[in-house]
Amino acid sequence: MEIDDLTPAEQRVWRAFATGTTVDLRALGEEDGPERTVRAVVLRALLLNGPREAGEVAALKVLGARVIGVLDLSYAVVDNVARLGYCRFEEAPRLAGAQLGYLNLRDSVLPGLKAARTRIDGSLRLTSCRIDGPVYLGGAQISGGLFLDDAEISGADPDEPVLQLNQITVDDDLCARGLRARGRIRLDGATVAGSIDLQDAQLSNPGGHVLDAESLDVGANLLGRRLRAHGRIDLRGSRIPGRVDLMQTTLSNPGDTALRASSCVIGELWLRAGEPVVGRLNLRRAEINQLHLEPEMLPDQVRLLDLTYTFLTPHEPAERRLPMLERDDDAFDPHAYEQLTAAYRRVGDDRAARLVQLAKQRRHRGTLPWYGRLWGHLQDATVGYGFRPLRAAVWLLSLLAVGSAAFAQHRPRALKASEAPEFDPVFYTLDLLLPVISFGQESAFAPSGGYRTLAYVLIVTGWILATTVVAGVTRSVSRQ
Predict the structure, then answer these.
(1) 77 touches 97 (CB < 8 A)
(2) Closest CA relative to residue 251, chosen from 214, 269, 225
(3) Considering Cα of 200, then 205, then 208, then 212, what sign does the dihedral take?
(4) DSSP 8-state secondary structure symbol assigned to residue 468
(5) What does the alpha-carbon distance between residue 360 and residue 28 come to, in Å, rounded to a whole number?
(6) At what angle do helices 425-433 and 450-478 cross, to 10 degrees?
(7) Which residues fall within 8 angstroms of residue 52, CB to CB, at 6 or more apart?
(8) CA–CA gap between residue 9 and residue 38 (Å, rounded)
(9) 3-state DSSP assignment of residue 216
(10) For the chain, give me the number of helices (H) and strands (E)?
(11) Rounded alpha-carbon distances, angstroms, from residue 349 to 29, 339, 345, 479
(12) Are strands 445-446 and 413-414 parallel, antiparallel or unpaired?
């Protein structure tokens, strides 16, 4: 390409390339005027075979240009830095399969970006860009960082993802603070060596996925404070050894799953100080070291089957934690109760641990046949399934008082008057109540009439109390 064939604006860009000088066209005429118009073929020619000067580093640095035509660098090898900031592209650049040194499109307006399987040795900056079409970066390899801070991305086709980052590899951070995306973001199978920053982002795709990040592999953290997501976030099978920070977030997907983190391995999950989640929360089979979870944020449906966690904060009374175990599609999951019990025991709250175990037995009772439920009600009423042993003492003392008073008023007949010991109503009642202890009273005296019925009731009640106490205490001791 000859320099004589170029417009004045293109000539400025051509001459500045060899020394890497920045050409700022923003002060020249209207945005769509000829003074700021640069053909894409000129930019392509510079990047592939532009002029060089000895001792200088060539680079394409243009601000405020209107780029007409398609900037097609598909499968090209470009060693030069390319900075096209505050530019307006009439056509979506094509960078599929290209090898680039560094690409900065900050504050530009684009109808889309086609850069699947691109390899960038430095960073890719799309900060504050407005992109009115899909962005294809699937399978790209970026040795630096990927910057999408304050970018705005939307697409015309609701069935097509607006941002395709599936299978991408980023050797630094993926920064997307304040990102505004209307449509689906694909991040499944991606590998990010640093952190993913979605703080203050606004993601909207009502009724569909806003973030599809299955099998995501993050080296550090997933930061989402003040994130507003209207649609489904899917992190199934992801590995995030650091922190998943969802403090002060708004997660909404009515009638469907709002957040799915099933089968994930996560260092810390923070779900606090935000609005209640609208939709389902799915943490099934996840492994979380520290779960920061406020009861106020929990939705009506919480799926916790086989969820494993080590610590649960903030410390809340068992009465505030138990409702989340009852929202798993009405399914009884004993593992969830054991996890909550273990969390309370780690911080030394034995009372809360006992309450959780008691709630577990009551929930399990509803799954039993009628005779099992009857026996369960009996254990619950008498000794609280062994977790309230003082109840047995209260029952025994009450029955002892009733029996002693009754038999003191109506002394039973001695079977052998010459051999019978002196009658004692208290020890006689104890003989009836305690099946394994004998004071010699029960075998020496025989009540009659209604008092015989009372004696039978005391004997049966004593056996029931003894059996439930033994069963409850055995269950309690076996869990220590």
Answers:
(1) no
(2) 225
(3) negative
(4) H
(5) 74
(6) 50
(7) 18, 58
(8) 7
(9) coil
(10) 9, 36
(11) 72, 14, 6, 15
(12) antiparallel
Instruction: Single out the residue of 380, 354, 355, 382 nearest to residue 366, CA to CA.
Output: 380
> Alpha-carbon distance 6 to 10, whole Å?
5
Residue 408: per-residue pLDDT: 82
The two tokens of residue 111 are 């109808």
CA pair distance 270, 261, nearest whole angstrom? 12
Max distance between CA atoms of the chain, in angstroms, equals 139
What is the residue whose two structure tokens read 């689906």? 184
The structure tokens 């042993």 sit at 389
Residue of 156, 250, 255, 162 lying closest to 207 (CA atoms): 255
Structure confidence by residue, pLDDT tens digits, 114-167: 999 999 999 999 999 999 999 999 999 999 999 999 999 998 777 889 999 999
DSSP 183: S
Distance CA 155, CA 183 (A): 7
CA pair distance 152, 107, nearest whole angstrom? 10
Go through the chain and tell me how many residues it has: 480
**CB of 165 within 8 A of CB of 186?**
yes
Closest CA to 145 of 171, 126, 106, 165: 171
Q: Specify the amino acid at residue 410.
A: H
Full-model pTM: 0.79
Q: Which residues of the chain have pLDDT under 50?
A: 477, 479
